[in-house]
């Protein structure tokens, strides 16, 4: 099976953290979090059914355990398996939909479903966990189209109601389903329905719901998903749209050179785009003219191209969503229209001797066989690139060396694995390509920190802050680095700034408390540890550290109480035993002090033999 290798692949660092690994609603799916997903956007989009499906897989993958964000601690297998299963179901639904649409022409349905199943342009939708929304919304989308055909066949209002319900489910899986009303209008055209008032009235609920979801999506994505392409003019953006229109067609017909990321073109020194962008509007007009001309002879071409066009029109980057000029995943549904045209004429060649393509039927059959073989081979190779973050971004770099995001994300992957030299190499290339990204300098600071190059780390954090002075995390990381370098006052200023930007951040208290302890500011350290204990009462180290603060303040009863609570949480904490022994010894309770000293030693704490011997003699 083509997609079988995907099941054993890992998470990638491209949106998988936002969708799964760092998403609290997904990691702890319950009725409350499910309600939250329906009421709020998640991962810069509104797709509650998608997020709930990921939550179900998370529970299966973690076996109910609360795991960290580390991709190695959570198996990706259930997520991949579900994606592959949904793709298989979609292939079946494509067959059923085309079978009904073509009035039970088995060959048309078979060829369309086959091409949909194996085309390498669909690898991204299936192999990428974060694209669960693609395969899930398509499932409901196709089910809705099938029920609409049932409605046209039997004029059953129940079938129309089911169509509407599947449309809602598709919208709740991915807002791209807003084009559904346009697709069913195209079906009306293909089925030769008269566009009467009744036909338009039955579409009103679909159109209204589509508009509502469209507005919701624009509002959500305008915050951070819609890219800034101010360097390009309105005319150039029009060229991007027509370029996308023809390139999706081109790659569907000529399955070659696919990538997880297609960067925007680089302008020449004169500010010009590559020639293909200037030709794109002309080519698009010619294609449109040919399709319009075909209306004289058949409805097949217009229907197929309307299906394709309506499915991609919203992602043709006239308004840029994301940082790529196009994406393979956007062709997942759209490809059905083009494959239908190919399949229809393949069937005509063999089923009708009067068809113009009948004399070329074997040539067409040979083309389909060759196309299928090439598609499977290219898809199999493209699937390999999704094994992990390294293979994914290395593949992008091999095809688009100017794609700065690939160096950034591969550098992040290397950094997470403490492969600091490789991470540093990628980040230096990334910064040369994009010098004004504050996050890049922040990550560079992390890498230098891992290499213990403190001054370079501080310089990188400072550069990041100069570019973006409202990122709490950068201040926190610089504070930690200052503290490690013994620059405590500077560290405290950055901790304070970080808390101003994001009040109540636990990570700040966790690091600042230890810095305050190291500085001898025990009262302040105790206050921070008290906040931490209120928030995370099950952490034995917080009680240990606060107990140390109390000890240094000579508040011995409170220190002993904290050490006792520490040991209740972790009976093997040798430091707590030893510190308790020291306090008890100072208070003259040599029996208990001796017992605690022995327990500290048995817990592998380095207790000096003379200390134990002295307590023994005092007993």
Secondary-structure map with pairings?
Blueprint: H1 16-21, H2 24-27, H3 31-39, H4 48-62, H5 77-101, H6 106-118, H7 123-127, H8 132-154, H9 157-171, H10 180-190, H11 197-224, H12 234-253, E1 262-263, H13 275-294, H14 300-312, E2 324-326, H15 331-351, H16 361-384, H17 389-399, H18 404-416, H19 420-433, H20 438-450, H21 454-467, H22 472-484, H23 488-501, H24 506-519, H25 522-535, H26 540-552, H27 556-569, H28 574-586, H29 590-602, H30 609-618
Antiparallel strand pairs: 1-2
Pick out its properties:
619 residues; mainly alpha; Serine Threonine Protein Phosphatase 5, Tetratricopeptide repeat; two-stranded antiparallel ribbon; 30 helices
Please tell me about this protein's structure.
It is elongated, with a radius of gyration of 31 Å. Among the domains are: 16-56 and 76-384, no CATH class; 542-619, Serine Threonine Protein Phosphatase 5, Tetratricopeptide repeat. With 619 residues, it is mainly alpha-helical. Strands 1-2 form a two-stranded antiparallel ribbon. Helices cover 70% and strands 1% of the residues. α5 runs antiparallel to α6 (106-118) and α18 packs antiparallel against α19. It is built from 30 helices and two strands.
């Amino acid at each position: 099976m083509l997609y079988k290798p995907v099941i054993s692949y890992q998470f990638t660092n491209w949106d998988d953290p936002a969708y799964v690994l760092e998403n609290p609603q997904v990691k702890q799916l319950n009725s409350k979090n499910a309600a939250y997903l329906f009421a709020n956007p998640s991962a810069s989009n509104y797709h509650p059914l998608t997020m709930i499906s990921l939550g179900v897989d998370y529970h299966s993958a973690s076996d109910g355990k609360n795991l960290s964000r580390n991709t190695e601690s959570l198996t990706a297998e259930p997520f991949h398996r579900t994606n592959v299963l949904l793709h298989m179901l979609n292939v079946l639904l494509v067959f059923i939909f085309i079978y009904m649409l073509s009035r039970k022409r088995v060959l048309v349905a078979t060829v369309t479903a086959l091409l949909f199943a194996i085309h390498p342009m669909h690898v991204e939708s299936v192999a990428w966990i974060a694209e669960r929304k693609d395969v899930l919304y398509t499932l409901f989308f196709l089910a809705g189209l099938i029920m609409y055909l049932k409605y046209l066949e039997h004029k059953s209002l129940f079938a129309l109601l089911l169509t509407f319900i599947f449309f809602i489910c598709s919208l709740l899986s991915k807002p791209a389903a807003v084009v559904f009303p346009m697709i069913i209008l195209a079906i009306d055209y293909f089925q030769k329905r008269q566009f009467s008032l009744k036909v338009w009235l039955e579409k009103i609920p679909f159109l209204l719901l589509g508009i509502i979801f469209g507005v919701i999506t624009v509002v959500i994505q305008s915050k951070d998903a819609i890219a800034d392409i101010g360097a390009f003019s309105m005319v150039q953006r029009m060229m991007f749209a027509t370029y996308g229109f023809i390139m999706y067609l081109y790659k569907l017909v000529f399955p070659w050179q696919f990538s997880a990321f297609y960067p925007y073109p680089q302008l020449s020194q004169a500010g010009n785009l590559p020639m293909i962008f200037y030709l794109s509007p002309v080519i698009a007009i010619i294609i449109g003219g040919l399709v319009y001309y075909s209306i004289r002879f058949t409805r097949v071409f217009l229907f197929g191209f309307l299906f394709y066009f309506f499915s991609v029109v919203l992602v043709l980057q006239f308004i840029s969503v994301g940082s790529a000029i196009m994406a393979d995943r956007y062709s997942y549904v759209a490809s059905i229209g083009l494959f239908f045209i190919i399949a229809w004429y393949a069937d005509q060649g063999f089923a009708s001797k009067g068809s113009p393509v009948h004399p070329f039927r074997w040539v067409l059959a040979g083309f389909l066989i060759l196309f299928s073989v090439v598609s499977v081979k290219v898809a199999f190779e493209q699937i390999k690139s999704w094994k992990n973050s390294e293979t994914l971004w290395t593949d992008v770099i091999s095809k688009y060396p100017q794609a700065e995001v690939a160096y950034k994300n591969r550098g992040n992957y290397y950094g997470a694995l403490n492969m600091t030299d490789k991470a540093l190499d990628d980040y230096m290339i990334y910064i040369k390509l994009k010098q004004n990204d504050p996050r890049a300098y922040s990550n560079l600071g992390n890498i230098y920190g891992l290499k213990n190059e403190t001054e370079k780390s501080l310089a990188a954090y400072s550069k990041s802050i100069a570019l973006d002075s409202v990122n709490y995390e950068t201040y926190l990381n610089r504070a930690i680095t200052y503290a490690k370098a013994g620059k405590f006052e500077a560290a405290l200023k950055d901790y304070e700034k970080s808390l101003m930007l994001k009040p109540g951040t636990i990570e700040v208290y966790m690091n600042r408390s230890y810095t305050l302890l190291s500085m001898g500011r025990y009262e302040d350290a105790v206050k921070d540890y008290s906040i931490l204990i209120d928030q995370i009462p099950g952490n034995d180290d917080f009680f240990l550290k606060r107990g140390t603060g109390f000890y240094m303040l000579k508040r011995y009863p409170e220190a002993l109480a904290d050490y006792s609570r520490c040991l209740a949480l972790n009976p093997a904490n040798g430091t707590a035993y030893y510190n308790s022994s020291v306090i008890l010894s100072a208070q003259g309770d040599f029996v208990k002090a001796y017992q605690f000293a022995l327990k500290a030693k048995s817990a592998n704490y380095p207790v000096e033999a003379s200390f134990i011997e002295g307590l023994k003699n005092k007993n």
